[in-house]
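Let us work through a complete example step by step.
Step 1: write down the sequence.
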Amino acid sequence: MGKTPTITFRKMTADDAEQVAEIDFKSFSVPWKMTDYWRYAQEKNIEAVVGEIDKKIVAYAAAFVAFEESEVFKIAVEPEMRGLGIGTKIFAELIESVKKRGATKITLEVRPSNISAIKLYENFGLTSIGKRKNYYTNPTEDALIMWNTDLFGSL
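Step 2: predict the structure and record it as tokens.
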């Protein structure tokens, strides 16, 4: 693993949609549309953060927040920037954002084949509690359902 570059974080804005969608396209077999990110950046129940190096977005993470629960729906790092600790930093930033909104729990789905992501989430106290059958497509794969039900006590 190389040295982690200096990264700054901020709330995602609608103006970030194009750069975030580019990372999404490179990262997922079924990417979202740019308009999805434009819309989510403006939603009041969404916490979305971006990480920048030299004013270029290199990572993003987003979660829906309702009362004490938050559900991560996207997290990605530019492929050429992976392995530098940026995923850990952007996930930590997202968790701090949802905690400020009152969330005490966080959940997400992840492909069982995505071992590096699973390890990342486990480092933040999430554990697998079950599966969603054939949740992912292209290729078809189940999803592990992961939870941390005590964000304040376990981090």
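Step 3: interpret the result. The chain has one domain: 8-154.
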